[in-house]
Design brief:
about 450 residues; alpha+beta; BirA Bifunctional Protein, domain 2; Rossmann fold; 2 domains; 8-stranded mixed sheet; 5-stranded mixed sheet; 18 helices; 16 strands
């Protein structure tokens, strides 16, 4: 018996209906990226592990999908190494490549590799899948698409402002109710310094980044395991949960972090961003969230996260400022900032809210019924003219029973059906049926085109 085919956990097939809906999301996102002058690039699905390892922190490195070397991948491993069963020791000998974890690190590699061909500041967008060996669950997949938009080669905070505007426009087009959460890694560094744990900055950010998922009690346990004292944790908690509007929080923070030069600089950067966006016509609320950490180690300044307000799901967009990501590839002191839209989570939210426009499914506007070879040949001539006018149209391929052909049109949500028999051919007419209203009438080609272009 043949084995039933399947796909790996955490991956999905997409039906035509799902693809049309996904393209609806991609098309809206791309339209905004293009409007702001960003250019598309693509990078390979796999990168050298030397490019990927060490860029996402210890936990991120564990989630990298590694690719076995071609041929006899164990050829360079001796028997003693195999007997010890220490996978980390033999990893470099059996695997030199991995699937990309995100689009930002490959982008940094791209910038360094092609630096002589780029004009800085370089504004790019990239819409491609990424892979993470995570535990599959609702809203979390092992293969998923990211829609990244970055500008590199400029430290200006106007770039952060532009990204906030892009986020606002994208979710406005998609009619999603969201909130933009904003923080700054310099503020987090200042907090770590103020509570007497400057050397534990990374441990603190990794732990508090899980606050929404595991709660404060488990975050405290993790902080203690990382070596934070009870005194430091007690100082940290009230800072993370400061009350008030963003301006009030910044004012209180300035007093709390007055002894930290780094922390004060972070506050100044956030205030500058707020000063700019206060003069813009944003439809989305932007709030300061001191518990926002973004666990990736390469962030150095502003960090963003976008939450859907009408659906229970994780963040649907996130990113931040990275001041020296290209430095690890030999091109230091090149500042960049970007955000990534999670297309799969956006899809899940729109589906849950039944927010996809019904017209997104109407890829074909008119179906011509097939009555036989002579009629089909006549219809093919008309189809050329209809398609030349930019209208999606098709001819049913077989001279099947009328019920079957109409059922096809109905199941495909095709709004119009054209029927041309011998009488219609003799009179140069098309019998047009509106599948929504049920109305049927004879029309000429000019009238048909007018009707279809108005829909």
């Amino acid at each position: 018996m043949a084995q039933t085919p399947s796909i790996p956990k955490g991956t999905r097939d997409f039906s035509p209906v799902e693809m049309v809906r996904r393209n609806y999301i991609f098309d809206h996102i791309k339209s905004v990226f293009n409007k702001y002058g960003y250019l598309p690039i693509e990078t390979p699905a796999m990168e050298n592990l030397s490019t990927l390892l060490g860029k996402y922190g210890e936990e991120g490195d564990k989630l990298l999908f590694k690719i076995l070397n071609s041929g006899d991948f164990l050829a360079g491993v001796n028997d003693d190494e195999l007997k010890e069963k220490k996978s980390a020791a033999i990893q470099s000998k059996i695997s030199e490549k991995g699937l990309r974890y995100d689009l930002t690190v490959p982008f940094a590699r791209f910038v360094v590799q092609h630096r002589n061909d780029l004009v800085f500041p370089f504004k790019r967008y990239q819409i491609q899948p990424v892979w993470r060996a995570d535990k599959p669950q609702k809203g979390r997949y092992r293969e998923f698409y990211q829609c990244d938009v970055d500008v590199i080669g400029s430290p200006s905070l106007l770039n952060e402002v532009e990204l906030i505007k892009i986020i606002d426009e994208v979710f406005g087009l998609l009619k999603m109710n969201v909130v933009i959460k904003l923080n700054n890694r310099k503020i987090l560094a200042g907090i770590a310094e103020t509570v007497g744990a400057a050397d534990k900055m990374i441990d603190i950010t990794v732990a508090i980044d899980k606050l929404d998922k595991i709660g404060i009690d488990k975050v405290v346990v993790e902080l203690k395991e990382k070596g934070l004292s009870d005194e430091a944790i007690e100082k940290l908690k009230p800072i993370l949960f400061l009350k008030g509007e963003s301006a009030e929080k910044l004012c209180k923070l300035r007093t709390i972090l007055e002894g930290s030069e780094t922390g004060i600089k972070g506050i100044s950067e956030i205030k500058t961003v707020y000063d700019f966006i206060n003069g813009l016509n944003l439809k989305t609320k932007v709030e300061l969230d001191l518990t926002l950490a973004r666990g990736l180690n390469y962030y150095t300044g502003a960090i963003f996260e976008v939450k859907a307000l009408d659906a229970e799901i994780g963040s649907v967009c996130g990113g931040g400022r990275y001041d020296d990501l290209t430095g690890i590839f030999g091109m230091p002191d090149v500042s960049g900032v970007g955000v990534s839209f999670g297309a799969d989570r956006i899809y899940d939210v729109l589906l849950q809210l039944n927010a996809f426009p019904t017209e997104t499914l109407n890829t074909t506007k008119i179906l011509f019924v097939n009555f036989g070879d002579k009629e089909a040949a006549y219809c093919l001539n008309l189809l050329e003219k209809i398609r030349a006018a930019g209208i999606n149209a098709e001819l049913y391929p077989d001279a099947a029973k009328m019920k079957k052909q109409m059922g096809y049109a109905d199941s495909r949500k095709i709004p119009f059906v054209a029927m041309i028999g011998e009488n219609e051919m003799n009179e140069n007419k098309i019998s047009l049926k509106n599948m929504v209203t049920g109305e049927q009438k004879p029309v000429d080609l000019t009238t048909l085109l007018s009707i279809l272009q108005m829909e």
